[in-house]
Amino acid sequence: MIDIYNPKALVELKGKSLSNSESRIRELYSASRSSNHKNFYKAVKLEAFCAIKERIGGIDDGGKYVCHPRMVKKTNCTLISLGLNNRVTFDQHIWNVTGGHCKLLGADKDPQHSETQKYYEKMNGELFVGMIPNELTVSSMMEKSGRKDVDILKMDIEKGEFGALEPFIREYSVCQILIEIHGTPAEHFKMLKIMARYHFRIFNVDPNPYCIKCSEYSLIHDNCMDQYGVVPLTPIIPRSEY
Predict the structure, then answer these.
(1) Where is the Methyltransferase FkbM domain (predicted)?
(2) Which residues contact 176 (CB under 8 A, 6 or more apart)?
(3) Chain segment 22-50, per-residue pLDDT in tens
(4) Confidence (pLDDT) at 63
């Protein structure tokens, strides 16, 4: 465990991140051009250090790593969960751990069962139905619910992320993105570059053991690092190109 309040430890952490950064970038580019997903996941290095990462939603495929969720702002906070499939363990957990006062917005391509709807009613959440982004956009969810920004965005929408994410983060402020990317290493790299362009840094990589072409990535925006006690490291994903 690294003591983030120890200046010497922080200098060492940042120095280690900076060393060999050029070779790490070359390694990542090379891995993105191959068909070997495992090599690509290994080549993706962390760009931010979160001292308190918490697994939200359990240890199965539905769980996500969130940075210091108890540091979500205490008023007017917004949580978004895309891709429910009648599984609300993550939604219940994140709503409770952030204090039970954030506005929760959930969406899925199919109408959810009555039990799922009841869970959302108890959390004063709003459910939306539609294939994202063709039938439903994340921006329209924000507009209909009267929200202005997002504290935590969870996205698991089976390749819908390629069309849905960039228009949303171009328009709205988001602190943390928890996203499962589906596809080839080149497609993963493309999505990571898009998020980097909007100043998000990776603080966790978690390949899906049930899907070789899928991996979970947790990212935080530069503007939110102080709030969550995150230490910025050397960026590996290029920010100046697609």
Answers:
(1) 49-202
(2) 66, 67, 151, 152, 153, 218, 219, 220, 221, 224, 228
(3) 889 999 999 999 999 999 999 999 999 99
(4) 87
Torsion angle defined by CA atoms of residues 73, 76, 77 and 83, in that order, rounded to the nearest 10 degrees: 180
pLDDT in tens, 78-121: 999 999 999 999 999 999 999 999 999 999 999 999 999 999 99
- The alpha helices in 82-153, defined as continuous H runs, are 89-97, 114-122, 138-145
Closest by Cα among 106, 113, 162, 169 to 134: 162
Q: Which helix (H) or strand (E) holds 103?
A: strand 103-108
First to last CA, the chain: 35
CA distances from 124 to 31, 84, 120, 194 (A): 44, 16, 6, 33
Tell me the domains of the chain and their CATH numbers: 7-232 (3.40.50.150)
The rounded distance, in Å, linking the Cα atoms of 39 and 34 is 9
Structure tokens at 106: 């959930």
Which region holds residue 163: left if phi is over 0, alpha if psi is between -120 and 50, else beta? alpha
Cis amide bond preceding 7, omega within 30: no
pTM: 0.92
Q: Which residues of 34-47 are buried (b: 16+ CB within 10 A; e: fewer)?
A: eeebeebbebbbbb
Number of residues that this document lists for the chain? 242
- Dist. CA 225–CA 88, nearest whole Å: 27
